[in-house]
Design brief:
The complex is a heterotrimer of chains A (175), B (193) and C (497).
Chain A lengths: L1 H24 L6 H9 L12 H11 L11 H12 L6 H4 L4 E5 L9 H5 L5 E2 L7 E2 L9 H5 L5 E5 L16
Antiparallel strand pairs in A: 1-4, 2-3
Helix pairs in contact in A: 2-3
Chain B lengths: L1 H13 L10 H6 L4 H33 L5 H23 L1 H7 L10 H13 L3 H29 L11 H16 L8
Chain C lengths: L2 H5 L22 E2 L5 E5 L9 E2 L6 E2 L4 E4 L8 E2 L4 E10 L7 E9 L19 H10 L12 H10 L4 E6 L8 H8 L1 H15 L3 E7 L3 H11 L5 E6 L8 H9 L14 E5 H13 L5 E7 L7 E6 L4 H8 L7 E4 L6 E2 L13 E5 L1 H4 L12 H5 L6 H9 L3 H6 L10 H5 L6 H65 L6
Parallel strand pairs in C: 1-14, 9-10, 9-12, 10-11, 13-17
Antiparallel strand pairs in C: 2-8, 3-5, 4-7, 5-6, 7-8, 13-14, 15-16, 15-17
Classes of the chains: A mainly alpha (175), B mainly alpha (193), C alpha/beta (497).
């Protein structure tokens, strides 16, 4: 009766020591995957995902708490890249119908308070105090941070019109 | 020498652990979507099986058999296997994060891979020498990797073809596995004498 | 040539049984009477769109600059006839999407008053840089369809010391005969243009490749080139897509253009015969590129043939000139293989428009697609040596990266694979879709990188601002403390009341 107990205890002790040593040698600093995913993200910390910045979103993704489509700024390509990285199945349904958007200043309502300038994570709004503001199309990610800042409701998001350059052929139906 | 070669070939092909013993079907179906992860899984399992078989043989020959404690085999072997898997998980996590991600839950599940425990038990029951047991385990593990790779390659092709809706996904994969198993039956005709 | 290529290669392409080029090619060239209005697009070339230099209400003369080139790769646009600018803004583009693009609309006065044009008597005596400048000023772009501005192309050729010009008279697309017409009727112009271009590039020889289904053009060009030893007329087998630059270069020079590279990288520059004719007119007569020969063809056209038409004429007006037998089932700009289906007839033509087709329902009929039988016909037909069936299978499964790994980038979208496919699979469209998707992904990636850069710059600025504010506050505090200390020292501490 005693022998098996002793043997199993010894075995457990031995293997435990070995694993403890291995855990020390092969320790991984932080979560490398989360860091890699955070590097793939836009990095604006715009908060559209409802999480506290891109780092938090990456952590949530790795923990499985957020879907691959969590980042609206990154769009479908980022979602696909994340899904490929984490081996998730992707449902683009929620993302496809929105399409890219861009902020637009209604010049007749804008009072030039410059509050939106401070809120923009990419410095995409130009203007100064008492001057009507404008949006740089190239820099705007359509995150909507400025919309909540504006006291007069002069900033809204509008869908980006399709151009000849970004038009794409529809996927044909095979038999 | 030729004895060991025959042992290697017969364990890898004729008595393939997946295709004729039907052990280790869980990762065989689970991690065979892409060649890369199948290869990684194959390598990890090969390492675990070889180490586990060697450790089990030593444990059985020097501790359990002399003391007449053969009834402890399953218990001790599974502890050894679990420790080996934990060890290799730490190694892969450190050195190959991408593979670690793609293997996912199937990496810790090598512990419960019946192929590993099955081979550890089979080798000690056969009662061969240490070297023979290790070659037996290694050959079987090679056979496992081979089966994984072949199946993953076929499934990669399968993803591109049109499958009737009722059979799409898992059903056609099972049919494919069955056909592959039938093909492996051809090795039963090999005569080494 | 390896054994494999001997067995299988060199047999790329397709040869349609009836190329529908005649009788349109044999009819005499007609000049289109001036329509009521022209819509001259600003983007008729690869690169940045031209910038309008006229305003609504301005009167313009034929040949007058109406939009200037912007940036290194661009081309100016000229008024094709005299009249008044009535609009500058979006019109429907000749593109299947039906999306708008910017154009200058000119309501013609019918008088066709021309701007004083100054040609050069001996362009070959000019400096090559001056020749290139004049080509650029005339707004000449590649008229074969690629629409790359000719001047930067010549400059590139000069920089890379290109020795051989390949002049593309292939015109392999069925139905089209506008290049054929140029060579038949204006062979001397073409040869002169070739000589000017050789001078501009610094090339020693020019090989003019003409498909052997155009014996009249070959004869005319031979006659015109007789006096010039450096220009060789080379009949090539009529096989689609012989008019693709890579294929023509390989047939004429035996050299293969590497994947993803330009022909200039192997010391060859390819120019279309119509482009050469336009260069001749620009240099000798000072005439900008504002009109060209367009083939109007197809089963629905009453009098098919080649028409000298101004750039920017509406397809509607062009079809009215040649007459329609029946309502066309589909309008196509370009050839039937690579041309673009038009959303409707109210679209303008562009510089590179070599043909407008009005096709009947019978001509565009195509059986419904069925399953791929893996016959490999498409692999044999592909002029780029790709495996269309494998690429299409990956596109169908949504595996765009897998498609790209099979060299989807090298696909010319020539349509040979779809033409030979016994299952009628929409191969080309699936490749176009995949290319577009991959392009959009690359764009998004670039955009994300830019966003990240901007966000980082902002973070840095905010941190710097905060630091500077803190430092300034610390300094003020220190100054105040010093002041208080100096105030307190002589008079002791004053109690606040």
């Amino acid at each position: 009766m005693l022998v098996p107990v002793v043997i199993l205890t010894l075995l457990g002790l031995m293997l435990g020591l070995m694993l403890g040593y291995a855990a020390r040698v092969f320790a991984v600093e932080g979560n490398e995957v989360a860091a890699e995913i955070a590097a793939m993200m836009p990095g604006t910390n715009c908060g559209q995902c409802g999480l506290a910045g891109c780092g938090a979103a990456a952590d949530a993704l790795v923990a499985g708490a957020a879907p691959a489509t969590v980042c609206p700024g990154g769009g479908a390509p980022l979602a696909q890249a994340i899904a490929a990285k984490l081996g998730l199945t992707l449902d683009l349904g929620g993302l496809a119908d929105q399409g890219p958007k861009i902020a637009e200043v209604q010049e007749d309502i804008c009072i030039g308070c410059a509050r939106c300038l401070k809120g923009c994570p990419t410095d995409a709004i130009v203007g100064a105090s008492k001057q009507i503001h404008g949006v740089l199309h190239q820099a705007c990610t359509g995150c909507g941070a400025c919309v909540t800042e504006c006291p007069t409701g002069a900033i809204g998001l509008r869908p980006l019109p399709q151009t000849l350059q970004d038009w794409n052929w529809a996927s044909p139906s095979f038999a | 020498m030729s004895e060991y070669l025959i042992l290697l070939v017969s364990t890898a092909l004729v008595n393939n652990v997946v295709m004729s013993k039907f052990l280790g079907l869980c990762p065989f179906m689970g991690v065979s979507k892409s060649m890369d992860s199948a290869f990684g899984m194959g390598l990890a399992t090969t390492f675990v099986i070889t180490v586990a078989v060697a450790a089990s043989w030593v444990l059985d020959y020097f501790v359990l058999a002399p003391l007449g404690l053969q009834f402890l085999r399953i218990l001790t072997f599974i502890v050894v296997i679990a420790a080996t898997v934990q060890f290799i998980e730490a190694v892969i996590k450190k050195s190959m994060p991408a593979l670690y991600q793609s293997l996912g839950i199937f990496l810790p599940l090598i512990t419960t891979n019946c192929a590993v425990l099955g081979l550890a038990l089979l080798t000690v029951q056969e009662g061969g020498s240490f070297l023979k047991s290790v070659v037996y385990g290694f050959g079987s593990a090679l056979g496992f990797t081979l089966a994984m790779l072949m199946f993953a390659g076929l499934r990669e092709r399968l993803a591109l073809v049109r499958v009737p809706a009722a059979l799409d996904g898992a059903p056609v994969s099972f049919i494919l596995a069955g056909l592959l198993s039938l093909a492996f039956m051809g090795f039963a005709g090999l005569n080494f004498s | 040539m390896g054994i494999l290529e001997r067995l299988n290669g060199g047999r790329w392409g397709v040869h349609p049984h009836d190329d529908h080029k005649r009788p349109a090619a044999d009819t005499p060239l007609r000049v289109m009477p001036l329509p009521a209005k022209l819509c001259v697009p600003l983007l008729q070339h690869v690169g940045a769109p031209a910038k309008p230099v006229v305003a609504v209400g301005d009167s313009v003369l034929r040949g007058q600059l109406i939009a200037a080139a912007q940036g290194a790769v661009s081309a100016p646009v000229h008024a094709p006839s005299s009249g008044v600018v009535t609009a500058i803004g979006p019109v429907t583009a000749p593109h299947p999407s039906g999306l708008p693009f910017d154009a200058i609309t000119i309501t013609l006065d019918g008088e066709d008053r021309a701007l004083e044009a100054a040609g050069v008597d001996d362009p070959l005596a000019l400096e090559p840089a001056e020749v290139t400048r004049r080509i650029a000023d005339a707004g000449i772009v590649g008229l074969g369809g690629a629409t790359f501005p000719s001047a930067p192309k010549a400059q590139l050729g000069r920089k890379l010391e290109v020795q051989t010009l390949v002049i593309n008279g292939g015109e392999c697309e069925p139905y089209l005969s506008s290049d054929d017409s140029v060579m038949r009727h204006r062979a001397d112009d073409v040869i002169d243009g070739v000589r000017i271009l050789m001078h501009a590039v610094g090339a020693r020889t020019a090989l003019v490749g003409i498909e052997d289904n155009k014996p009249e053009a070959i004869a005319a060009m031979r006659e015109a080139a007789r006096a010039f030893a450096a220009i060789r007329i080379c009949p090539v087998p009529a096989r689609y897509p012989m008019g693709s630059d890579r294929q023509l270069v390989e047939v004429l020079t035996g050299k293969q253009v590497p994947a993803g590279a330009r022909t200039a990288s192997i010391g060859v520059l390819v120019n279309n015969v119509s482009t050469c004719a336009a260069i001749h007119r620009a240099l000798r007569h000072g005439e900008a590129l504002y009109r060209r020969i367009v083939t109007v063809n197809g089963g629905a056209v009453a009098a098919p043939g080649n028409v000298l038409a101004p750039v920017g004429v509406l397809v509607e007006d062009l079809l009215a000139f040649v007459g329609l037998k029946e309502a066309p089932a589909r309008l196509v700009m370009g050839g039937p293989m690579m041309g673009l289906a038009l959303p409707h007839a109210q679209v303008p033509t562009v510089k590179a428009c070599g043909g407008v087709l009005a096709l009947t329902a019978a001509e565009i009929a195509r059986p419904a697609p069925s399953a791929c039988i893996r016959c490999g016909s498409c692999v044999k037909a592909c002029p780029m040596g790709l495996q269309p069936l494998e690429i299409a299978a990956r596109v169908r499964a949504g595996d765009y990266d897998g498609a790209a790994s099979l060299q989807l980038d090298d696909c010319l979208a020539c349509g040979c694979c779809a033409y030979v496919c016994p299952s009628n699979l929409p191969l080309v469209q699936s490749f176009q879709h995949a290319k577009g998707t991959l392009w959009a992904r690359a764009q998004q990636k670039k955009r994300n990188a830019l966003t990240r850069e901007l966000a980082d710059a902002r973070r840095e600025r905010l941190e710097r601002d905060a630091r500077e504010r803190a430092e300034a506050a610390a300094k003020r505090k220190a100054a105040r403390a010093a002041q208080q200390a100096s105030a307190a020292a002589p008079g002791g501490q004053e109690m606040p009341s």
